[in-house]
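Shipment paperwork, digital attachment
Item: protein structure file
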Amino acid sequence: MRITTKGRYAIRAIVNMAKNDDNKPISIKSISDREDLSPIFLEQIFTKLKKAGITESIRGASGGFRLARELDQITILDVLEAVEEGVLLAPCTAGGENCERSVDCGLANFWYDTEQDIRKSLMDRTIQDILSNYIEAC
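Attachment content:
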């Protein structure tokens, strides 16, 4: 499984927002400047994050985006699924006709079980966990 640039940038942006005082709206430009990320790419990411209910947009002069949920309610899996095309380990775990050998292949179950373990780990970790265990500890 490979987390794409979009997924990594989304997590960076959410963590940046999480460090924002009182969850005040923050502009994409501010996040872009602080994280050295493309504002155009961030706009695409934030469209998906908003649609998934992770962020919300505030209009007006002091508007921007803010988190729509508490930090301990935003899982890493939520963020990745919002911006990625899914979190898949192998084509056979996607179901359907993605792998012509999945019916006869004993490895399909192995990949499926492994993918479920990874998904559970990403579901059990939140933005608050990142802040508490990795960011604030630095």
